[in-house]
Design goal:
Blueprint (H helix, E strand, L loop, with lengths): L7 H26 L3 E4 L3 E5 H7 L6 E11 L3 E8 H12 L12 H30 L3 E3 L3 E6 H8 L9 E11 L7 E9 L1 H10 L4
Antiparallel strand pairs: 1-7, 2-7, 3-4, 3-5, 3-6, 4-8, 7-8
Helix pairs in contact: 1-4, 3-4
Length: 211
């Protein structure tokens, strides 16, 4: 697949799909957290894997990554990436425990609780985005059980995308903002990545009316 750039119209279409998914996810997160949550998609890009690592903070940035296999009429990988501190904050909100800490040294019951909380967030976000994409394209798409990792961005992205990187070099990057109306905490920013295999990229483009 040759390098390319999205047109403004193509970005708008992908942002619309992302915002529909974000709206559905916000409803589920509001129920989970017991407070009003808003989500939006400020930007969508297509970038190669080296650019992806830089966009999530560089290879040395500590992150939490959740990886899903996409199954159905398109195949590929979906990934959700949060800065370690923002992932920790989400765990604190979901577990109602402001003393929860998240790091590479987290272990035992604390690690199990954190992974469960983050996996729940990942399932909500991925399910919502895939449902929006399915509705928009008419294709049946399902996520696998998530694989969660905590490490430097370079290690997470290299290992998590190792298999699919053998067949494609590009990811659709959907920037995501999570806003809490009742909190003074800054917006939580995450990166949502969709990496279809080459044939699925072509299916997606065809369904969206792009040559």
């Amino acid at each position: 697949m040759d390098a390319f750039h999205l047109t403004d119209l193509q970005k708008d279409i992908l942002k619309e799909i992302g915002n529909i998914g974000a709206g559905n996810a916000a409803t589920s997160l509001s129920q989970l957290l017991g407070q009003k949550i808003d989500m939006m998609v400020p930007n969508v890009e297509i970038a190669d894997f080296n650019e992806v690592i830089e966009l999530v903070g560089g290879p040395e940035q500590p992150i939490v990554g959740l990886m899903f296999q996409v199954e159905g009429e398109m195949t590929g990988v979906m990934a959700i990436v949060f800065d370690m501190r923002e992932a920790e904050y989400l765990v604190q909100k979901i577990t109602y425990n402001n003393q929860s800490r998240l790091s590479e040294q987290t272990e035992g019951a604390d690690l199990d609780i954190a992974m469960s909380a983050l996996s729940e967030i990942g399932n909500i976000l991925t399910g919502s985005y895939l449902t929006a994409l399915s509705d928009f394209t008419g294709m049946n798409l399902q996520p696998s059980v998530p694989h969660l990792g905590m490490d430097m961005a370079g290690a997470i992205m290299t290992m998590g995308l190792l298999e699919i990187s053998q067949v494609t070099d590009y990811a659709i990057i959907i920037d995501t903002e999570i806003r809490q109306e009742e909190e003074s905490h800054e917006n939580i920013n995450g990166n949502f990545l969709f990496i279809p295999d080459p044939s699925s990229f072509q299916k997606l483009f065809a369904k969206l009316g792009w040559n």
